[in-house]
Amino acid sequence: MKEPLQFFKCLSDITRLNATLLIFVEGELCVCELVEALNDSQPKISRHLSQLRACGILDDVRRGQWVFYSISKNLPEWATEILETTSRTNKESLQVLQTSLKAMENRPQCC
Predict the structure, then answer these.
(1) For 1-111, where are the alpha helices, taking DSSP H only?
(2) What CATH number corresponds to the domain at position 52?
(3) How would you list the strands of the sheet with 66-71, edge to edge?
(4) 39 SS3 class
(5) How far apart are CA 24 and CA 106, in angstroms?
(6) Which residues form the domain of 58?
(7) Considering the domain boundaries, does residue 59 fall inside one?
(8) Domain for residue 81, yes or no?
(9) Per its UniProt record, what SMART domains does this chain match (predicted)?
(10) CA distance linking residue 65 with residue 13, whole number of Å
(11) pTM of the predicted protein model
(12) Comparing C-alpha atoms, which of 83, 75, 63 is closest to residue 11?
């Protein structure tokens, strides 16, 4: 990810933006956690995560049956700063998503 235009296009969808911000503040999440937090279908969330990976915003790693997503370690500093600022200025929206996430039973363990 080197182009700001690509970065902003990738985050122009509310589902992709919310998933990215939630992953940014939580550090790492799997599809099932995002399905719960975003209250959307697994196929839709998976499609959006695939697009975010293709854009270079997310990395993924498989651990057993789970695939965990995190912010790409190759994301430019300017993009990370944008995610930091956006998450900080949208605390209320993120808290709603985090509340849904925390209410999830049987969350997979990342480590």
Answers:
(1) 4-10, 14-26, 31-38, 42-54, 77-89, 91-102
(2) 1.10.10.10
(3) 29-30, 66-71, 58-63
(4) coil
(5) 22
(6) 4-95
(7) yes
(8) yes
(9) HTH_ARSR
(10) 28
(11) 0.90
(12) 83
